[in-house]
Amino acid sequence: MEERKAESPPAQPSLVRPYSLTSGRTSPAVELALEALIQVLPGTDDRARDLDNINATIVALCRESPSVAEIAARVGVPIGVARVLVADLVEAGHVRILATLKDDSSDAERRELIERVLSGLREL
């Protein structure tokens, strides 16, 4: 007799469509690179209580200064949605964008960024 392999049940689809998280917006109000690091601003914890679940989760993640790409991966949303949500939090004064590398960045700044990216990748 031929043995059948048990199939795992299909993953449950998300009940919330990504575009509904951004009210249909696809462009962030603030330019955000994938590698841009995001940091929570002082005093945000008190104001974050009024945020919805996904935005509160993003604010909590930003205590570790993750990149926009990391935020998208950890929250489980497409990168475009993460950009819009993070941009909204920037405009609301909950988080800020840390400076990214420029053409005139020093070797030390470049090394620090590479080390942070590697550290973040290891944590995933």
Automatic annotation (TrEMBL):
Pfam families (alphabetical): DUF742
Q: Which InterPro entries match?
A: DUF742
Residues annotated as region Disordered? 1-22
PANTHER family linked: DUF742 DOMAIN-CONTAINING PROTEIN
Record's protein name = DUF742 domain-containing protein
Give the species this sequence originates from.
Rhodococcus ruber BKS 20-38
Q: What is the lineage of its organism?
A: Bacteria, Bacillati, Actinomycetota, Actinomycetes, Mycobacteriales
